Amino acid sequence: MAGCVARRAVAVAVGGRCCCWWSRPLAGARALRPLATFPPAPPAAAAARRHLSSRNRPEGKVLETVGVFEVPKQNGKYETGQLFLHSVFGYRGVVLFPWQARLYDRDVASAAPEKAENPAGHGSKEVKGKTHTYYQVLIDARDCPHISQRSQTEAVTFLANHDDSRALYAIPGLDYVSHEDILPYTSTDQVPIQHELFERFLLYEQSKVPPFVARETLRAWQEKNHPWLELSDVHRETTENIRVTVIPFYMGMREAQNSHVYWWRYCIRLENLDSDVVQLRERHWRIFSLSGTLETVRGRGVVGREPVLSKEQPAFQYSSHVSLQASSGHMWGTFRFERPDGSHFDVRIPPFSLESNKDEKTPPSGLHW
Q1: Residue 296 lies in a domain
Q2: Is 258 left (phi over 0), alpha (psi -120 to 50) or beta?
Q3: Domain limits at 257?
Q4: Residue 233 pLDDT more than 70?
Q5: CA 342-307-152 angle, 5° bins
Q6: HSE of 345, CA atoms in CB hemisphere, 13 A
Q7: Number of folded domains in the chain?
Q8: What's the CATH code of the domain at 89?
């Protein structure tokens, strides 16, 4: 797959100028190297610049145009079938359907007296949620090898349908994307995204805008798996120019050793909003269960990595899981980062709730079609 990706280049137009990704026409090539020159672009296209650079023009590359940028929407939602470039991670994708989430942004919370530490968080302010649009999307399989060091491409997991209460499985190339991370583009290709579910979920209709419409398969899949896909709450907080965004998902309940075990996955995105290079070294979690237990978890890095956040690669995104023997709980904590001079600082993880679906009739049993 990596060879296939490397033989295809990406190009989209901004303001009539071509912005290009180049790739080696050689088997075994591993990474896309960016190259572009264009006049000052409108603010909507500025986010793409981190992926596009004019230095070190590579030799022996092949350029292939795949689409033309559209003006990003400041208001309203993108429709099913909208093609896009991810403004942070740079992959190509397609919108399946939107989610309306409640965003709890502690950076814009109204000034309120600090509260004493409690099971819901650490000296937290009152934060009111506001509606924010996210999208369920498919990632182009050709781009997965080139973003895997910065964003997991198998992060959307489900409980497996068998007796092992801890067994999980993932749908590769399924993601959640915030509205502001969408850089929309159009393409004349009838199958512009390579993903095993693209043609199963979407049908090409040239007269439509965008020209890809939902098949009944997609609508049925969305309806049947809604409880285990639903994105409802998003939590965000910034400490010393490191922004942490957390999205929890309820996965369902399983029985183990004559007790009920409730499962959640949580997606975390770390973003360096400054130009200074920092590296994640440690995590420190506090997990409170409605049953009355309070667990502390410390460890090196996250998911076996200690990512570096720099101006060139400012973000890292991963997913993990937690289980409780109670139907609800809370999590909060800190990430410890290291500066180039060896000094350390702690970044707060915004507190978030772990809530189960009280009206759950049957536990999830894998992927429904």
Answers
A1: yes
A2: left
A3: 68-108+129-355
A4: yes
A5: 170
A6: 12
A7: 1
A8: 2.60.40.1470
